[in-house]
Design brief:
By secondary structure, this protein is α+β, with helices and mostly antiparallel strands. It is about 35% helix and about 25% strand. The radius of gyration is 17 Å and the shape is globular.
């Protein structure tokens, strides 16, 4: 199994119910717990993408910065479950000013390489007020 095969599965309440062997060491103790409680502030970063995958029934991919790394998440819905494939793209390196600058450049490239997918615009307020 390779790092690209790493995954975890969450239920309809975003509780982690399964982790792949490759993530067992880092996430195995979280099984049965809320993803959002195990990884603080992640609900704000990618909770809406999880909701979008559930509602649309389509795979969603996002690239973001969390815990010192640029990461890509591929979120695949399957019934009431979501299988999430995380991939670390670049990590912040604080050893020297030079390595910090280089790691920031790589992270910026990873985050800007992918334009966010357009989302449907919100309904005009006049339509939202209909009974």
């Amino acid at each position: 199994m390779t790092a690209s095969d790493d995954f975890y599965v969450v239920d309809c309440d975003d509780r982690i119910i399964q982790v792949s062997d490759g993530l067992h060491e880092s996430m195995g103790s979280f099984v049965g717990n809320s993803l959002w409680e195990c990884f603080p502030r992640t609900a704000d970063l990618f909770g809406e993408y999880f909701d979008d995958a559930r509602e649309s029934g389509r795979e969603v991919e996002l690239t973001t910065f969390y815990a010192g790394a640029a990461i890509r998440l591929r979120v695949v819905p399957a019934g009431k479950y979501l299988t999430v494939y995380p991939k670390r793209l670049a990590e912040l390196n604080l050893r020297t000013l030079g390595t910090l600058a280089e790691s920031l450049r790589r992270i910026e490239e990873e985050l800007s390489a992918r334009e966010p997918e357009p989302r449907d615009p919100p309904a005009p307020e006049s339509l939202q007020a209909l009974p």
